[in-house]
Amino acid sequence: MTHRNLTESTWRETRAAAADSIAILPIGSQEQHAEHLPMGTDTMLADAVVSRALAVLAERSAAGVDVPGLVRLPTLPYGHSPHHLFAAALTLSAPVLGTVLDELLDSLAACGYRRVLVVNGHGGNDEIMRLAVKRFALRAEVTAAACSYWTLTDTGEPGEGPEEDGDSGLIPGHAGWFETSLMLAARPELVRTERAGREPVDPPPLFDKPPYPGLTVERHGEWERVGGSTDDASGADAGSGARLLERRALGLARAVLAFDAATRPTA
Length: 267
What we know:
The chain is an alpha/beta fold. Helix content is 38%, strand content 10%.
């Protein structure tokens, strides 16, 4: 396994790695995360999951597993967050974020990369990211993949956390138990635990608890009405966060290996 950080590589090293490596692009956001989490939570959690997954892959490579070359790109720290502007956010519009991703992906293709994996940390980016990957594969001779880190686990089994929402594949809450537990494991010094509690909100926000399975429902003013978080974070803890982080990292490591096995260039 060869692992390079693009920012720390020379242009010749970057070009040399392109033919056989998978480029990994993490993306996040800068937006409100209630009273107790920092604006960059999504960016930091995407970073943490990718970092741990790369460490897992390095361990497996040392143990004799065939692991592809990996080139880690700098994390894109801005995303699509207009729904958080009621408090504070630095947001890109959907067309602009799509264009940013288009141009970054096209740059990778111009550098010789033929396999790219985008790893997302913010729910508002998900659809935009997936469309960008589809467009990329239509206009360039590449194979590209995309995922949001919370959808990946080591087993794929649902049901962890106080409301069994941790492995459902859906966005498991915003600034609530899930993200707060992860941040307590990844960046505990940035969590204002004394502000983590929240009274139940009735009715719950429709974007988080739609009235019928399969519906996507958005109602004006919902985020402000619920105070910027989807659920109470007072029960979050670092132990749960470490387990959540490890499961996502193991899931991402497995996804990388599966992506490589399905797309590895043949002589």
